[in-house]
């Protein structure tokens, strides 16, 4: 990780937790100790966003796990960036592979969501990543560049400070399989070069690209040592006290 890019860890709770379990997570996060030089954001289910924002220390960010592309209207079951901001949360995760592959969200829709969330003042963690069959067919770059382009085309030049890109190979999410630090670094390096070639050298250098896919307390430090891996987006492991080690992986 380059020194000008602050280490970033997202804890994506997914569809997990009740108030009792969330209180336990808040307790171990509050106790820490957390690396003061790392930025931590927790991705929370919609019905608990307000509860978590009120209980977590202000130094820890809170993200919604999804939102829609307009401010309000007849969109049953959706939430808007305006609602997320209204309860005090600052972030949203968009385009997670589960949204793409379970719920059928397209690259184009995810780009529109990113654009609206940024316009409304949220910070965004857009996610990209290839499936196992795509990697085995040698299509990793083709897939992730295409996903990235659909997002980048919708990011205004003055909003890049509010974007943290997450690379999550789908075959490594929740499977126990992790891209090796070298495999992850290879893709992160190519993503950064793509940003340099297609946006600007400045954006490429300052934008954080984090890795997701079975990150654990055991492998987090090796991943954090790589030059273009600026942190991690963590699923199940973020529900457990060992998550503290992942947050502190760059120390």
Strand order across the largest sheet: 1-2-3-4-5-6-7-8
| CATH homologous superfamily descriptor | Aldolase class I
Q: Quick one: overall form? A: globular
Q: CATH class, anyone?
A: Alpha Beta
Q: SS-based structural class? A: alpha/beta
Radius of gyration using CA atoms only: 17 Å
Termini, distance in Å?
Answer: 12 Å
- Strand % is 15-25%
Average the pLDDT over all residues and give the rounded result.
96
> Main β-sheet, in a few words?
8 strands, parallel, barrel
What CATH architecture do you see? Alpha-Beta Barrel
Helix percent reads 25-40%
Q: How many domains in all?
A: 1
Number of strands: 8
Helical run tally: 11
Low-confidence stretches: none
- SSE series: EHEHEHEHHEHHEHHEHEH
- Could you name the CATH topology? TIM Barrel
In short:
This protein is α/β, with parallel strands linked by helices.
Q: How is the topology of this model organized?
A:
Blueprint: E1 7-12, H1 19-31, E2 38-44, H2 49-55, E3 61-64, H3 81-86, E4 91-94, H4 97-101, H5 107-119, E5 123-128, H6 132-136, H7 140-152, E6 164-167, H8 181-198, H9 201-206, E7 208-212, H10 220-224, E8 231-234, H11 243-247
Helix pairs in contact: 5-7, 7-8
Describe the protein in words.
It is a single chain. About 40% of the residues lie in helices and about 15% in strands. It has an 8-stranded parallel β-barrel, surrounded by 4 helices. Helix 5 runs parallel beside helix 7 and helix 7 packs across helix 8.
């Amino acid at each position: 990780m380059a020194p000008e890019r602050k280490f970033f860890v997202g804890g994506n709770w997914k569809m997990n937790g009740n108030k009792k379990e969330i209180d336990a997570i808040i307790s171990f996060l509050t106790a820490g100790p957390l690396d003061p030089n790392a930025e931590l954001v927790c991705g929370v289910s919609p019905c608990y966003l307000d509860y978590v924002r009120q209980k977590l220390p202000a130094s820890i960010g809170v993200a919604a796990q999804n939102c829609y592309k307009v401010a309000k209207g007849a969109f049953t079951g959706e939430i808007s960036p305006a609602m997320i901001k209204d309860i005090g949360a600052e972030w949203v995760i968009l385009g997670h592979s589960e949204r793409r592959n379970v719920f059928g969200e397209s690259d184009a829709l995810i780009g529109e969501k990113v654009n609206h969330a940024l316009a409304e003042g949220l910070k965004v963690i857009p996610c990209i990543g290839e499936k196992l069959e795509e990697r085995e067919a040698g299509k990793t770059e083709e897939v992730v560049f295409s996903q990235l382009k659909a997002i980048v085309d919708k990011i205004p030049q003055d909003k890049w400070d509010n974007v943290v890109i997450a690379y999550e190979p789908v075959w490594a999410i929740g499977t126990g399989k992790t891209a090796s630090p070298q495999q992850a670094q290879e893709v992160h390096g190519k993503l950064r070069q793509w940003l340099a070639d297609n946006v600007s050298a400045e954006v490429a250098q300052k934008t954080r690209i984090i890795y997701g896919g079975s990150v654990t307390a055991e492998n987090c430090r090796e991943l954090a040592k790589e030059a273009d891996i600026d942190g991690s987006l963590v699923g199940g492991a973020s529900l457990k006290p060992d998550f503290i080690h992942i947050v502190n992986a760059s120390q």
